[in-house]
Amino acid sequence: MIPNLPDKKIKNVIVDFRMSKTSKNTLSKLDINIIPTLKLNTLYNAVCAHPDMQIHQLDEKCFVCEPTLYEYYKSKLINASVLKGKTTLTSKYPYDIAYNAVRVGKCVFHNLKYTDLSIIEYYKSHGVKLINVKQGYSKCSVCILNEHAIITSDKIIADTAEKNNIDALFYESKEIRLFELSYGFIGGICGKIAPDVLAVNGNIEFLSNSYKVIDFCNKYKIKILNLSNEVPQDIGSIIPVSF
């Protein structure tokens, strides 16, 4: 499995422990086990439990995480190789973004100046293309549909992706909720739970112009599963774990 892109129905997801009970119940009814994050006190409250801030999936069974959370994720991902990251996060941007790179097939997008060195070294040694963008919250900003298609709330990422033969829908919504902040990002509300299913933390139809997202997913034969009947909330993405 390429990270973020399950090749079969997944068995586990890593999600913010504050995900709503309704969304958790919907996943549980699908026999998907929830691996909750822990609060990382060095980050500000809005994102302190977002998985895309804490942990990055390098390959099907290889992850790298913030060093203070290493023992926790090692105990939860018992069938995986969990690497201890080299960057201890702090609350001030850009020193909170080290693990927020986004992998799309054979490409990784991030502000590479601040990417954790473990991520850089791994991808360089495995032939994955590293692409520098200004956006540090890259994973938050990108919904990955397949190796060649994304939805992103960052125009520069959209343009850069297109230059790398990745079909990109630029979609920005200030209606996406985020704890204590004005709004969140499209990548933070979702994650794939099967090859043809994108789970959304909330109901995508509550967002203006959601038809653009729905139509783009339909273009790639991907169904949207709304996990609750609420305005979508950014929870730092839904990270699929296949094993």
Describe this structure in words.
With 243 residues, the chain is α/β, with parallel strands linked by helices. It contains seven helices and 15 strands. The model has no long low-confidence stretch (mean pLDDT 97). The chain starts with 11 loop residues before the first strand and ends with a strand. Helix 3 (70-76) links the parallel strand 4 and strand 5. The chain has a three-stranded mixed beta sheet, covered by helices on one side. The protein has a three-stranded mixed beta sheet with strand order 3-4-5, with helices on both faces. The longest helix has 10 residues, at 210-219. The chain has one domain (12-241): L-arginine/glycine Amidinotransferase, Chain A (5-stranded Propeller). The chain has helices spanning 21-29, 51-54, 70-76, 117-125, 138-141, 155-163, 210-219; strands spanning 12-15, 33-36, 55-59, 62-65, 81-84, 102-104, 107-110, 129-132, 142-146, 149-152, 167-170, 190-194, 197-200, 223-226, 239-241.
